Amino acid sequence: MIFKNYYFIPILLFLLSYAVLYLKKNNPYNSFIFLIYFTFFIQSIIVIAGLAKYHFTMVIPTYLMIFFNSWILMLIVILFELLYKAKYIVIYATPIVIAALLISYFAPSVDIKTILKVDSWLLIAHIVLILIGDSLFALAFILSLIYILQERKLKLKKNLKIINSGNKKSSGKNEGRLFNFRKNFNYFNLGNGYNLELLDNMNYQCLKLGFPALTVGIAIGIYLSSALFKSALSVRPIEIISLFTWLIYAILLHERVAKGLRGNKAAMLSIAGFVMIILTVGFSFYLFPEFHGLK
Amino acid sequence: MEIIIVGLNHKSSDIIHREEVSKKILTKELRNGFILDIKRLFNEEIGKQLIQECAVISTCNRAEFIFAVSANSSGGNKNTDYALIIKNIIIKHLFGDDSGSEELQNMFYTYKNFEAVLHFFKVASSLDSMIIGEPQILGQIKESYNEACEFKNTGLILNKLFHKSFYCAKRVRTETKIAAAPVSISYAAVELAKKIFNDISNKKVLLLGIGEMGKIAAKHFIKQGVSEIFITNRTREKAVKLAEELDGYDSKTIVDFSEYYKILTVADIVLCSTGADSYIIKYEDIQPIIKMRKQRPIFFIDISVPRNIDPEINKISNVYLFDIDDIGKIIENNLDVRQQEADFAEKLIDEEVEDFINWKNSLNAVPIIVNLRNKVNGILSAELCKYINGKDENLEAIVNSITNKILHEPITKIKRSGVDFNGLNLMEAAKILFDLDINLSSGTSQKNKTIEKEAFSAKDCETGGDDADNATDGHFYNNKIIQLNK
C-alpha cells in the first residue's frame, strides 16, 4: 500500500466528526471533539511514521510536508481550544486542516533532492519554524474571519442570538432537522468565549507567537539560501514576496503594540497577511521548485 | 358545576380600557368588593344563588374574573348562558352606560368549562403572556389565589383549579425550554455585552442618568459582577440616592454630570437613560475618546426615549451602540425559540386539562358513592351488632372491610361512569335501587355543600386539605373525593 493512502484515514475521520456534529441530537459537540482528538492521534502516528521513513531529516516530498503542516495546524488549533476554552475554533479551523490533507493527497507531489549538504538542524529549524508561523497565521486568518462576521452582526444588529437554544436537550419536535442547517449549527454561535474581545486576543496571540517564528524561520532560510547559492544578496521573486508577507505582519504587530490597533482593521491585515502566505507557499513550491531543491 | 372565565387582556383590548378596568380593581378590597357586587347582581338577575366560588386575576396585561357556577340547579334552565349574563353584568358594572357598545363586547372574552380550564392553564404557564415564558404571571396568579382564599371566595372547584394550574405551570417550565432564559432589556443588554467582552468582571460601567430602566440594567450588570460602576446624574442627589440603594456593592463612584466625559475613557459599558430631549453623546465627541482608549471597545446602551446618543457613533470602529428599539427587536427575534417550545407546552397543558375535567366530572358520582357506602355501612353495623352485641373492638374495621369488598365493583363503575359522561343512568339506577336520597343534578346536596365549604376553608386549601386526622363527616366526604381521584 502506498504510504499516501493512509492520509485518507484522517480525512474520513474528520469528515465523520462533522457528520456527527450535524446529525447527533444530544451533546453533539462532545462526540465531535472526541472524534477530533482521536483523529489527531491517528494523524500524529502517520506523521511520525512518515518522518521516520526519511530519518527525520525533513528532506521530504511535498505531500508529506503539507501533511506535516496540517498536523502542526491541528496541534495549534487544539492547544488554543484547550487554553482559551473556545470550542468553536475547532469547528471552524478543522476545514482548513481537511483542505490541507486533501491537497497533500491529490496535489501533484514533487520529490526533493538534496542539492547541497546543509546543516540538518538548521534545515529542520527553518522548516518547523516557518510551518509553525504559517499555521498560527492560518488560525489568525480563521479567527479574523469569525471576528469580521461577528462584528458585522453586532454592528448591523442582525441575527443576534441571545438565548442559548442548542445546548439543552431539545424537548420539542425535531422534524426537518436534517436540512435545517441554521438550527443544527446554531449552538456554536453561542457558549463561552464567543466574543469579540477573546477573538481579538487570540488573534493577537497568534501574531505574537507567529511573527518571531516566521522571522527566525526566514532568517535561517536566507542563511541556508546563501549557503546554497553562495550569495546572500541575490534577489529572487520568492524572497521579495516573503519579505512583503513579513512586512505586513511587522506593520500589524507594530500598530498593535504602539497604537493599540485592534478589532476590524487588525483582522483585515491578518487576512491580507495570510493571503500573502498562501501566495508565497504556492510560488515557492510550484513556480520556483528549484529554490527549495525540488525536482 | 360550570367554570366560567370572563376577562380582557393585551390581545383583546387596548391599554386605555385595560387601565380603566384596572383602576376599578386596583386594591384587594376593591377587587373583593367588585366580585361580590357581580355575584349579587348575578344572583338577583337569576333569582338563585348560583355563583359558588369566584376569584379575580389582575395584572398589567389582563383582568380576569373566574367563577364556579352551579349550572344545572333544580329549576334552572339548562340552556341559559351564564357566561354571557356574567359578562354583561361585568361590562355594565365597569363601564355603566357604554356597556352596550360592540367594541366593549368584543373586548371581553368568555370561556366555559373545558375552554376555561385550558385558557387558565395557559395563562398560568405564561403561554398567553405578552412575552411567552415570562415568570411573573405565576406569582401574580398565586397572589390572586391567596387573596381569594383570604376572602373565602374559593371552594372545592377553584381550589383544585388553582392548584392544578400551579402544577401545570411548573411542569411546563421544567419540561420545556420555554423559560430557558429570562428575556428582558437588562438581560439582553448583559448578553450583548458578553458578545463584545470576554470577561465582564473586569469591566467598568458608567450609568449616565438614572431612569428606571437604566437603574434595573445597572443592577443586572452588578449582579454579573462588573468591577466598578460610575453613577452620574444632572441632579446629584438622585445619584447619591441610587448609590445608597446599591449598598451591597462597594465599587461605586458618583461622578459630576459635567465630568462624565472623563469617565468615557475608562468605562467599557455606558448605560444611558437620561431625560434629555437631544443627543448628549455625539459622533465628534467619541472619535477622540476612542483614540484615547487605544481602540479598546466601548459598548453604549441607550435606553432613553427620545434617544440621547447619536446613532452615527455605531459607525466608529470598536464602538457598539444599541438603543431600546434594537434591543426590543433582538428580544423579539429570540422569542422564536420560545414559540417553538410553546407548541410542546400546549400538549402538556392539554393533558393536565383533561385530568382536571375528569376529576370535575367524577365529582358528580361522589354523593352517590358516599351515600351508598353510608347505607351499606349502617346496615352492616346494625345487623352485626345484633349478633355480637358490639363487644368486638374491631367491629368498625370489620364493617368497613366488608363494605369495601361488597362495594368495590359498583363504586368503580359508578366512578368511571361519572368521567365518561354516559353514567347518568348508572347513577340514577344506583339511586333507585338503593333508595338514596340525593339530588343528582345539583351535583352535591345542600348539606354536603356546607361541609365542603367548611372543609375547604382558606387555610385548608393551602395545605391541600388532606389532613389525616379529619374526623368529621365533612372531612370524611372530602377525603373520599381525594381518594376517588387517586
Shape of chain A: globular
What fold name goes in the CATH topology slot of the largest domain in chain B? Beta Polymerase, domain 2
Strand order of the largest sheet of chain B: 7-6-5-8-9-10
Instruction: Look at the structure and give the CATH class of the largest domain in chain B.
Output: Alpha Beta
Q: What pattern of helices and strands is seen along the backbone of chain A? A: HHHHHHHHH
Q: Provide the gyration radius of chain B in Å.
A: 31 Å
What portion of the residues of chain B fall into strands of 2 or more residues? 5-15%
Span between N and C termini of chain A? 24 Å
Layout of secondary structure:
The complex is a heterodimer of chains A (295) and B (486).
Chain A (H helix, E strand, L loop, with lengths): L7 H16 L4 H26 L8 H23 L3 H19 L13 H37 L24 H4 L11 H34 L7 H23 L4 H24 L8
Helix pairs in contact in A: 1-2, 1-4, 2-3, 3-4, 3-5, 4-5, 5-7, 5-9, 7-8, 8-9
Chain B lengths: L1 E8 L5 H10 L3 H19 L4 E8 L3 E8 L12 H14 L6 H6 L1 E4 H12 L11 H15 L5 H20 L9 H12 L7 E5 L3 H12 L4 E5 L3 H10 L6 E4 L4 H5 L4 E4 L10 H10 L5 E5 L16 E5 H11 L1 H27 L3 H23 L6 H25 L4 H11 L11 H10 L2 H6 L9 H13 L1
Parallel strand pairs in B: 5-6, 5-8, 6-7, 8-9, 9-10
Antiparallel strand pairs in B: 1-3, 1-4, 2-3
Helix pairs in contact in B: 5-7, 5-14, 6-7, 7-14, 8-9, 14-16, 15-16, 16-17, 18-20
